[in-house]
């Protein structure tokens, strides 16, 4: 579960081709980071995978099935939004259960999944609070909890920590890495932060103007950057 392949995927907005033909394979259980400067197409690529944008051409396969025409809710992926996407008037429990309620899941199963997610995220004691009564890190965990309960084939994160302060960011980075270890689910994580990329990724995809400059482990990119752009971006001495 969680193998994702992009084959000759392109995306244009009007006349602007934001993603030229792109091929990429993401393996089951991998933590893949898309990194690159602002405007290089990271969010667009993630939204194409999520189905929030339609590809202009090419195909996206999820676990061997052509998902290009499959609507977002049916792709089996969960996008984690920044914590401010929580409902302020609902309890933590209701926020986390929200996607299950929308799917009209059996209430006992909803409760089982919320309880399990809260345990993984250390939110068990906070289920009856509202988001406004939580710290920034706890709110971010609730946003992640809402993704976990769907038991997705892959998690998609778009700069989830960008509105947290520096200390909390370091903390959440570790928590997300630990979560990846315990769930062993594919995660695709978008950031413009080299440190996040280098510390969290199994595999880094360096993007520039919608093109893949290099794909590799943090060590490979550091030791053998494909070009000056990668070297400069990753901060390797070459
Ligand atoms: P990143 O997430 O790497 O900062 P984006 O994927 O948001 O970059 O944007 C890549 C390019 O696509 C940018 O030039 C941006 O202006 C353009 N773009 C993104 N979304 C749209 C849209 N809905 N309509 C037109 N242009 C868009
Ligand atoms: Mg973006």
Automatic annotation (TrEMBL):
Query: GO molecular-function annotation terms?
Result: ABC-type maltose transporter activity; ATP binding; ATP hydrolysis activity
Q: Which coarse location class describes where this protein primarily resides?
A: membrane
Keyword field:
ATP-binding, Nucleotide-binding, Transport
**Residues covered by the ABC transporter domain:** 4-234
Cellular localisation: Cell inner membrane
Q: Which domain of life is it from?
A: Bacteria
**Transmembrane segment boundaries:** none
Membrane topology recorded in Swiss-Prot or TrEMBL: Peripheral membrane protein
For the keyword Disulfide bond, the answer is no
- Give a Gene Ontology cellular component term annotated to this protein: maltose transport complex
Q: Which family does it belong to?
A: Belongs to the ABC transporter superfamily.
UniProt-recorded name of the protein: Sorbitol ABC transporter ATP-binding protein /mannitol ABC transporter ATP-binding protein
Q: What organism does the record attribute this protein to?
A: Roseibium suaedae
Section covered of the full-length record: 1 to 238 of 337
């Amino acid at each position: 579960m969680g193998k994702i392949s992009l084959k000759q995927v392109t995306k244009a907005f009007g006349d602007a081709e934001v993603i030229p033909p792109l091929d990429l394979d993401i393996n089951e259980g991998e933590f893949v980071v898309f990194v690159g400067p602002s405007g290089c197409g990271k969010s667009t690529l993630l939204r194409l995978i999520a189905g929030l944008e339609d590809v202009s051409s090419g195909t996206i396969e999820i676990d061997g099935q052509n998902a290009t025409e499959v609507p977002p809710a049916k792709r089996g992926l969960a996008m984690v939004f920044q914590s401010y996407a929580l409902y302020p008037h609902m309890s933590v429990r209701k926020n986390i259960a929200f996607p299950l309620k929308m799917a009209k899941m059996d209430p006992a199963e909803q409760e089982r999944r919320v309880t399990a997610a809260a345990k993984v995220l250390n939110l068990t004691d906070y289920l009856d609070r509202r988001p406004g009564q939580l710290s920034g890190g706890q709110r971010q965990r609730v946003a992640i909890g809402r993704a976990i309960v769907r038991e997705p084939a892959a998690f998609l994160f778009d700069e989830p920590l960008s509105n947290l302060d520096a200390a909390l960011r370091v903390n959440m980075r570790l928590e997300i890495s630990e979560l990846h270890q315990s769930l062993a689910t594919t995660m695709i994580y978008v950031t413009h932060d080299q440190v996040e990329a280098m510390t969290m990724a199994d595999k880094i995809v360096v993007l520039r103007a919608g093109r893949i400059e290099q794909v590799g482990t943090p060590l490979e990119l550091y030791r053998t950057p494909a070009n000056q752009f990668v070297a400069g971006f990753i901060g390797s001495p070459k």
